[in-house]
Amino acid sequence: MPPGWRNSQFPPISFPPPKPAKRKVFVSYHHERDQHWFNYFTTQFSDNYEVFQDQSLDEEVDSENLEYVNRVIRQDYIKGSSITVVLCGGETWKRRFVDWEIASTLHYEHALLGILIPGTLQDFNGRYIVPDRLHENIANGYADFVSHWPSNPDELKGHIEAALNKAILKSRIKNDILKMRRNRP
Q1: Integer Cα distance of 82 and 108 in angstroms
Q2: Domain assignment of residue 124, yes or no
């Protein structure tokens, strides 16, 4: 500082606060039936989250070796995320790769959140049918479930944070049912 200058002669310097890192959110869904909901999800929420998906494993991973496909899911898609969001539509529970993506999420002990797609029908008991592995982890308190579509990014953030808080309880993970070998009819 030059002689005779005092700190009060300098205007305060302010820097914008650093942007918080975006949470990496892997989205699992039924590609044929619910692609438009994934597109809407990304449009609505990608400003706040780094949203990614598997680009439809049926076409991307050309292999009959199921262990290889499972390893690709774990290492190339799930590993870099902190949470998997499962968009639960009317036939999501029938998809083997959705089941595998949930299994890989649990393998890495990442958070798990199911979100009901609007217009999804209920069974004759008034329940929504979700993938078995997701249901087991919602029932035991490890995963979280939202029975309505989040209306804004702040609402989704609340649900994601709730799922992340539940995921602290690693001992509740239930991931011992056999992986689906093929899609259900």
Answers
A1: 9
A2: yes
Give domain status of residue 114, yes or no: yes
* pLDDT tens track for 118-175: 988 888 898 899 999 999 999 999 999 999 999 999 999 999 999 999 999 999 999 9
Residue 5 in domain:
no
3-state class percentages of the chain: helix first, strand second, coil last, to nearest 5? 40, 15, 45
> How far are the Cα atoms of 57, 104, 161 from residue 72, in angstroms, in the given order?
9, 10, 27
Domains identified in the chain, total number: 1
The CATH number linked to 94 is 3.40.50.450
Q: Is the pLDDT of residue 62 over 60?
A: no
**Strand, helix or coil at 18?**
coil
Domain boundaries, position 25: 21-172
Q: Does residue 79 fall inside a structural domain? A: yes
**Global pTM exceeds 0.90:** no
